[in-house]
């Protein structure tokens, strides 16, 4: 069986790795030999991928800011988020298959052609984000998420290893996220050295064509948090099962990804409500949301539906961890 995979990111490389393990003939077509796309590198600590990711930090403490004011902070007694070395993880998975570096792939003679080009089909609404890897002595182990209610989006400061932060910005109405990020860094961190600075888009809207697509190409990103690694890897696991067990690929994925796609849809609706609200209403809504332990718990794991919120109620009550994918 010959499989072509367009785009060797999270979804494409995970699928390629799984198929190569059962001796399928897999070719990844990518525009770059090594994976170099920027990311916050955060995954909720509730999912293990088929190929283990290297972890660089574990996050238990969070704080939320709205328009410069610290609204709430929370500390868990277990690791809520993992920070991973995503580049190393993906580049290691890529080594299991052939890679062709090209902008113009020849796709004849394949039994399957899977599109996992992330946001790059560019057929959806996007937010342009920039992230910096920053070295500083001024370090602590708390993750910060900061909203500026003039815009739709947020700044983040994630500890990525000792004395190093992953800091980023992405706002729907403000495409030059690099400029905003510089200003934010100067105001927030003071003394720092930038080790790496890159930008990339994140999908935040509906994708109409999902056929033979996995990962972000299929729209599998939570628009309120930007979380796309876990859903992309999960979609690759289902794509592998569909191909290996000779299922109807598109029907199988539609069925298996139902819960994730429903949760993404809910977030798209919430995002649209926020986008169309006045600045005052935005502030009020955000303050209510980020003072609620249960909603914060559901937000940090992207499970803002009834089942997810019930899970969060139990989790917050027991003060323990729940290890379920979604
Ligand atoms: C700045 C930033 C921060 C983020 N932070 C987080 C986070 O902390 N946690 C999280 O879960 N998610 C985060 N995300 C989202 C997450 O990175 C993506 O959703 C996830 O990587 C999607 O995986 P994917 O495999 O679908 O696509 P990608 O990882 O985007 O991979 C796409 C691949 O396609 C290749 N490609 C592009 N164009 C072509 C072409 N024409 N032909 C062939 N190949 C092509 C690219 O080179 C790349 O290798 C962030 C995104 C950004 C931009």
Keywords:
326 residues, alpha/beta, FAD/NAD(P)-binding domain, 7-stranded mixed beta sheet, 4-stranded parallel beta sheet, 14 strands, globular, disordered C terminus, binds flavin-adenine dinucleotide
Describe the secondary-structure layout.
Layout: E1 2-6, H1 10-21, E2 25-30, E3 42-44, E4 55-59, E5 61-66, E6 69-75, E7 81-84, H2 86-94, E8 98-101, E9 112-115, E10 126-135, E11 142-147, E12 153-161, E13 164-171, H3 177-188, E14 193-203, H4 229-244, H5 249-256, H6 258-275, H7 279-289, H8 293-300, H9 306-318
Parallel strand pairs: 1-2, 1-9, 2-8, 5-11
Antiparallel strand pairs: 3-7, 4-7, 5-6, 10-13, 10-14, 11-12, 12-13
Helix pairs in contact: 1-2, 1-4, 4-5, 8-9
Pfam family, one: NAD_binding_8
Organism: Saccharolobus caldissimus
Protein name: Dehydrogenase
Structure description:
This protein has one domain (2-266): FAD/NAD(P)-binding domain (3-Layer(bba) Sandwich), CATH 3.50.50. 33% of the residues lie in helices and 27% in strands. It has nine helices and 14 strands. The protein has helices spanning 10-21, 86-94, 177-188, 229-244, 249-256, 258-275, 279-289, 293-300, 306-318; strands spanning 2-6, 25-30, 42-44, 55-59, 61-66, 69-75, 81-84, 98-101, 112-115, 126-135, 142-147, 153-161, 164-171, 193-203. The strands form three sheets. It has a seven-stranded mixed sheet with strand order 6-5-11-12-13-10-14, sandwiched between helices. Strands 8-2-1-9 form a four-stranded parallel sheet, with helices on one face. Helix 1 (10-21) packs parallel to helix 2 (86-94) and helix 1 (10-21) runs parallel beside helix 4 (229-244). The chain is globular. It starts with a strand and ends in an 8-residue tail after the last helix. Residues 321-326 have low confidence and may be disordered. The chain binds flavin-adenine dinucleotide.
């Amino acid at each position: 069986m010959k499989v072509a995979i367009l785009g060797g990111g999270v979804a494409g490389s995970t699928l390629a790795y799984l198929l190569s393990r059962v001796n399928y003939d897999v070719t990844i077509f990518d525009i770059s030999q090594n994976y170099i796309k920027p990311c916050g590198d955060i995954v909720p600590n509730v999912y293990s991928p088929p190929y283990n990711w290297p972890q660089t930090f574990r996050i238990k403490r969070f704080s939320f800011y709205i328009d410069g004011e610290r609204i709430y902070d929370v500390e868990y007694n277990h690791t809520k988020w993992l920070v991973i070395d995503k580049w190393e993880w993906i580049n290691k998975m890529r080594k299991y298959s052939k890679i062709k570096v090209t902008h113009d792939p020849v796709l004849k003679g394949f039994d399957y052609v899977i599109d996992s080009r992330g946001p790059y089909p560019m057929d959806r609404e996007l937010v342009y984000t920039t992230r910096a890897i920053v070295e500083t002595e001024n370090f602590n182990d708390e993750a910060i998420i900061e909203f500026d209610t003039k815009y739709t989006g947020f700044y983040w400061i994630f500890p990525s290893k000792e004395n190093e932060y992953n800091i980023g910005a992405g706002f729907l109405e403000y495409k030059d996220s690099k400029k905003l990020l510089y200003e934010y860094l100067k105001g927030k961190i003071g003394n720092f050295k930038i080790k790496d600075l890159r930008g990339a888009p994140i999908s935040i809207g509906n994708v109409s064509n999902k056929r033979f697509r996995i990962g972000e190409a299929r729209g599998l990103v939570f628009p309120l948090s930007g979380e796309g690694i876990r859903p992309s890897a999960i979609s690759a696991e289902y794509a592998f099962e569909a191909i290996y067990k000779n299922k109807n690929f598109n029907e199988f994925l539609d069925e298996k990804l139902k819960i994730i796609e429903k949760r993404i849809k809910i977030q798209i609706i919430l995002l649209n409500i926020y986008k169309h609200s006045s600045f005052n209403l935005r502030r009020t809504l955000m303050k209510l949301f980020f003072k609620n332990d249960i909603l914060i718990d559901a937000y940090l794991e992207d499970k803002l539906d009834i089942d997810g919120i019930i899970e969060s109620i139990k989790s917050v009550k027991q003060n323990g961890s729940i290890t379920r994918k979604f």
